[in-house]
């Protein structure tokens, strides 16, 4: 079962936050839009360009345009995630004004990023505010969406510079560690 928590869109950007309690397996696919997925709760498996990951609470997945990807259920079926699909040109002016090349950023950061426990509330506030703006469409909502996106990108750059950004282990690495610990 899928419960939509929040959903909204504007030209070139869509957002969907949903909680699922049943098995859900997505086929491998790609699309011209970029994608961000953030997991509030639960566990899933994710495949992005030949890499297989086990995602969990606090996992953020960055997918560049035309990257092959899919996600499928873990033993634990419940998950709560937010997905943003976006065309790069929507956010290029906002990121360029900050001196950030969005193409370069996505090349360097695509894949999985585990947000540190102490930073999750901040990241979630960016994502929820962006989603609410897209759903409610109040005056100047497009501006707020671009600002929240720029805040998220700035945070991720700072995370990498601080050395706190670590790629998640692949599913096979997690299985190997589990076997070694048992």
Architecture overview:
- With 182 residues, the protein is α+β, with helices and mostly antiparallel strands.
- 37% of the residues lie in helices and 32% in strands.
- It is built from 5 helices and 9 strands, in the order ββββββββααβααα.
- It has helices at 88-97, 102-109, 120-136, 141-162, 171-181, and strands at residues 2-10, 13-20, 34-42, 44-48, 51-55, 59-63, 69-73, 79-86, 111-114.
- Helix 1 packs across helix 4 (141-162) and helix 3 (120-136) packs antiparallel against helix 4.
- The longest helix has 22 residues, at 141-162.
- The protein is globular, with a radius of gyration of 16 Å.
Brief characterization of the structure:
Helix content is 37%, strand content 32%. By secondary structure, the chain is an alpha+beta fold.
What's the helix count?
5
Mean pLDDT across residues: 89
- How does the helix and strand content classify structurally? alpha+beta
Percentage beta strand: 25-35%
Kindly report how far apart the N and C termini lie: 34 Å
- Given the C-alpha coordinates, what overall shape results? globular
| Poorly predicted parts | 167-174
Strands of the biggest beta sheet: in what spatial order?
1-2-8-3-6-9
Biggest β-sheet strands, sense, barrel? 6 strands, antiparallel
Fraction in helix: 25-40%
The overall strand count is: 9
Spell the H/E element sequence.
EEEEEEEEHHEHHH
> What is the gyration radius calculated from CA atoms?
16 Å
